[in-house]
Amino acid sequence: MTRHDPAAVLVLEDGSSYEGRAYGALGTSLGEAVFSTGMTGYQETITDPSYAGQIVLMTAPHIGNTGVNDEDPESGRIWVAGFVVRDPSRIVSNHRATGSLDDDLVAQGIVGISGIDTRAVTRRLRSVGVMRAGIFSGPDAALGLADQLDVVRGGEEMTGLNLSSRVSTPELYRMPAEGERIGAVAVLDLGVKSSTLRYLTARGFEVIVVPEAVTVDALFALAPDAVFFSNGPGDPGASDRHVELLREVLRRRVPFFGICFGNQLLGRALGYSTYKLPFGHRGINQPVLDRSTGRTEITAHNHGFAVDAPTEGISQSPAGFGRVEVSHLNLNDNVVEGLKALDVPAFSVQYHPEAAAGPHDANYLFDRFRELVIATTPAGKGGEA
């Protein structure tokens, strides 16, 4: 970026506008404006499929100083709809870097904006709630505010939106287990991150990644020893087909682990509802209580929806799957951060134990999943997979 970069403007659905300079590709981008509080890991953030359809604002003021590389992306492309920063780095200072963040945004056609008061925008989103937004740069920045606002208000609402088909793999693929194989896990790709798959193979799982459109018959024709539902974008209330697929997993008592979107879908499969948070949890500094150990973990988050389940004591699954407890709780706002079914082998967490940029406090959950599979399946106990 230089001072000669073209003008740009960020326009929020409520009519708020913030003038800055173009960052990345020129043009118009539309999406739900959200903020992320991570001070590092911006490359992992923008390549996380869970951010599809969202304009991400980084609250840390200085972004891009370590550039980009070929090792850290969480997927094969940038998924954010737009990118908002205050002070983009003018130079790249890291021995691993293969390019600059700005160049990567340009190459992949991601429209961004810099030089605005990101703290003011964050305060607006915290006060009013996340909302539709647009970034207009280059010639599009010269459009009148009324015209820009019409474009923004014509964009998609995240509530009721199913984005799984946009981010999922089109074809099944496999990854071999590392070390001693304990069984095969079918991973429903709802926007899965590369680090998740690496952590599963490192625990002895052969990983079979399946498209989000997989049918019940096709899934169980693979004879998986366990099933995993990944993170992903969109409204869990718009994913009835995935809920029914998961209910069949629970009926067959196949060990299940879900994260983020997978946690919301487990909640729905058990019979609880989900709801949209005012501004969500996004970043790498969310305190979560693991009730089984009493430990507080600092965790990575990226979600705008949550499960509505009783947070005290043990409840009965409204869908008939027995007893359920809320296993993890957010210490900032008491949002449900994990579920554990006590009568079927299933659990989930709302946050990201695979967080590649850190923190790694919750990485033990992959070990917990491994132990569940070993304890409940013939393959895990050393029988035929």
Automatic annotation (TrEMBL):
Question: Region CPSase: which residues?
Answer: 1-180
The UniProt record lists the EC number as 6.3.5.5
Q: Which reaction does it catalyse?
A: hydrogencarbonate + L-glutamine + 2 ATP + H2O = carbamoyl phosphate + L-glutamate + 2 ADP + phosphate + 2 H(+); L-glutamine + H2O = L-glutamate + NH4(+)
Residues at the catalytic site: C260 (nucleophile), H352, E354
Keywords tagged on the record: Amino-acid biosynthesis, Arginine biosynthesis, ATP-binding, Glutamine amidotransferase, Ligase, Nucleotide-binding, Pyrimidine biosynthesis
Q: Which SUPFAM superfamilies does its entry note?
A: Carbamoyl phosphate synthetase, small subunit N-terminal domain, Class I glutamine amidotransferase-like
Stretches assigned to the Carbamoyl-phosphate synthase small subunit N-terminal domain: 6-136
Name one matching Pfam family: GATase
Q: Which GO terms describe its biological process?
A: 'de novo' pyrimidine nucleobase biosynthetic process; 'de novo' UMP biosynthetic process; glutamine metabolic process; L-arginine biosynthetic process
Question: Which residues bind L-glutamine per the record?
Answer: S50, G232, G234, F261, Q264, N302, G304, F305
Give the superkingdom in one word.
Bacteria
Q: Which NCBIfam families match?
A: CPSaseIIsmall, PRK12838.1
Q: Member of which family?
A: Belongs to the CarA family.
* Quaternary structure note: Composed of two chains; the small (or glutamine) chain promotes the hydrolysis of glutamine to ammonia, which is used by the large (or ammonia) chain to synthesize carbamoyl phosphate. Tetramer of heterodimers (alpha,beta)4.
Q: Say what the protein does.
A: Small subunit of the glutamine-dependent carbamoyl phosphate synthetase (CPSase). CPSase catalyzes the formation of carbamoyl phosphate from the ammonia moiety of glutamine, carbonate, and phosphate donated by ATP, constituting the first step of 2 biosynthetic pathways, one leading to arginine and/or urea and the other to pyrimidine nucleotides. The small subunit (glutamine amidotransferase) binds and cleaves glutamine to supply the large subunit with the substrate ammonia.
Q: What is this protein called?
A: Carbamoyl phosphate synthase small chain
**What gene does the UniProt entry assign to this protein?**
carA
